[in-house]
Amino acid sequence: MLSVLRRWSRIAIVPLGVLLVLSACSSPDDDASSSDGPYTPVTIEHQYGSTTIDALPQRVITVGGNWTDTLVALDVPIVAEYRLFSDGAPAGKTPWTPDHKSEVINVNSTADVDLTKLAAFKPDVILAGYLGSKQIYDQLSKLAPTIPVISKEAVMDTWQELTTTGGKIFAKTDKATELIKGVDDKLNAFKQKYPAAQGKTFTFGTSTPEGQIGVVTNAKDPSSLLLAQMGLRLDPGVASVSGSKSGRAFISPERMDVLSSDLLLMWIRQGTPESLAAKLPGWSELKSVKGNTVAYLDNTSQAAFNYPSVLSVPYAITLVEPAAANFK
Predict the structure, then answer these.
(1) Nearest C-alpha neighbor of 115 from the set 102, 129, 126, 104
(2) Residues 263, 65: Cα–Cα separation, whole Å
(3) Which residues contact 30 (CB under 8 A, 6 or more apart)?
(4) CB count, 10 Å around CB of 107?
C-alpha cells in the first residue's frame, strides 16, 4: 500500500506490472452514446497537462489492474495489459476481475517496461494511471496518446474517475453511468445494513516483514474516499501524521497509538494476523483488535482498496462487512 513503501507499493515501485495481453472480443454494446456515429474527439485533463484522443481507440493498452477492470466492465477489448506486482495479481488476475484471454508479462515497475516491446503492440491509446514521473509519461506519449493519473489531488484515481473517463474515451457514457449507479447502490446498501458503523473512524495500514507500519494519511486518497463512501471517516490522528506527497507515511512501532481508530484495515505483506502481536508491541491492546473490528488484507485483497475499480469495490465491501457487523 504505501508509496512510502512502494506508494506503499506502487508509488515507490511505480506501476507497470504484469502484462496481460488481452485478446478478448467485446460483445456488442447498445449504449446510446456508443460507436455507431462519428467519433467526437475527447480531451482528458490530467496531472501532466492534457491528452486529446481524436479517434475511437482500437488498440488499447492498460497499465495497472484498475484500468483493466474498468475496460472489462465497459466491454472494451484490450490488446495488451500491464499488471504490476502491487496490483495484487502476479498471475494476472484478481478475484473480482472476470475471466478474459490474456498474455501476462510481469514487471516490477514502469521503469522495467520494454518500450520497444510495448511499441510492437501498435497502441492507439495507453491508459496508464500512476507512472511515477513525467519522463515515463513523455516516453509513453511518443508511442500513443497516454492517460496518466487524472486527479491532481492524489496519486491514484478514484473508481468513479476511471469509469467516467473510460466512458468518455470509448463513447460509452451511458454504460459508465449505469456501472457507477450499480456500485453506488451496493455502497448505500452497506450503509443501511450497518448503521452502527456509520461515522466510525478508520485507518488503512500495512505492516512490512521488517516491522514497519505504513498508513494512508490523505483523505482524498482513493482508498480513503472509498471507505468514506461506506460511511466511515479517516481517523484525525492519522490524517495529522506528516508524510510524503503520496499521502502515505511510515510510523515507528512505538507509535501504535496512531492506530487507535474504530476500524482498522491492515495489509499484512508477510505473516499472519497472529504474528503482528509478536512484532508490534501494543497491538493486542488496540481498540479495533479488542473489538474484532480489524479487516486483514493480503497481497491480493489490498488492491481492492489501494487501486479501486468499478469491479473491485463490491469485493472490497465484502472484506469490510465482518468488521462492520461487530459495531453495536
Answers:
(1) 126
(2) 26
(3) none
(4) 21
DSSP calls for 203-271 = EEEEE-TTS-EEEE--TTSHHHHHHHHTT-EE-HHHHTS---TTSEEEE-GGGGGGG--SEEEEEESSS
The cell numbers describing 279, all together, are 512484532
Domain interval for residue 277: 182-325
Query: Is 54 within a domain?
Result: yes
Q: Are 296 and 268 in contact, with CB atoms under 8 Å apart?
A: yes
Helix, strand, coil percentages (3-state) for the chain, rounded to 5, are 35, 20, 45
Distance CA 226, CA 327 (A): 19
Which of the 8 DSSP states describes residue 84? B
The mean pLDDT of 91-108, rounded to a whole number, is: 77
Nearest to 111 by CA among 71, 152, 140: 140
E strands, the chain, are: 2-3, 7-8, 18-20, 42-46, 49-53, 60-63, 80-82, 104-106, 125-129, 146-148, 201-207, 213-216, 233-234, 248-251, 263-268, 294-297
| Residues 187 and 319 both lie in one domain | yes
Pick 107 or 247 by higher pLDDT: 247
Q: Output the domain CATH number for residue 89.
A: 3.40.50.1980
Pull the grid cell for residue 6.
Answer: 512502494
pLDDT tens-digit readout, 121-155: 999 999 999 898 999 999 999 999 999 999 988 88
